[in-house]
Request: fold
Amino acid sequence: MNSASILIIDDEVQIRKLLTITLESYNYHVQVAVNAKEGLTAVANHPPDLVLLDLGLPDESGHEVLRHLREWYTNPIIILSVQSTEEDIVKALDNGANDYLIKPFRTGELMARIRSALRKAALDENNPLGEFDDLTIDYAARVIRKNDVVIKLTATEYTLLALMAKNEGKVLTHQYLLNQVWGPSYNNESQYLRVFVAQLRKKIETDPNRPVHIVTESRVGYRFVAK
Reply:
């Protein structure tokens, strides 16, 4: 039985009702807020385990709510929005959103994204071992194994893979990955990223042409999937 609490910040009555019924059927504890002010107050008074945030709020942009929350709130935030432009998605992810779903969304996909975000948040950040189906990453030894066979990676390949794996389930934008692995001066060098992702897929994926671990999020970035 779930004990996680989820706060819905959305001004659409039907969406709030749908989400509340769905989440409660999975035994999550649900709170609701109809605007930015209520949402920020609710998080401050009773911090939830996860926030579902709409961007089109009546009193303040959801982007601003996200920015305010990320000044102190570290639990997962998933964006649910009709805003589907690349600019909005990248902006939200770069500002700290863990995930982004465009309305209308499939309920099964939303629940899977929630489970992934909560599972990742519950992991001990000091855990030296990451286990992802057929892959095992020993962060202390910097060793990757696939089905117990050591996979040889370059230093850059390892850094990129470890960064994605530690953010398992979260979409990481091209700019974020380039900045973290190569530095700010490489923010526009997307070709670097494509080359290294292709190299990683050849080494860790059973079928590099149909990757199951390093998944492309079109025009936005990549998501590392455990299974």
Summary: Residues 129-224 form a domain with the Arc Repressor Mutant, subunit A fold (CATH 1.10.10.10).
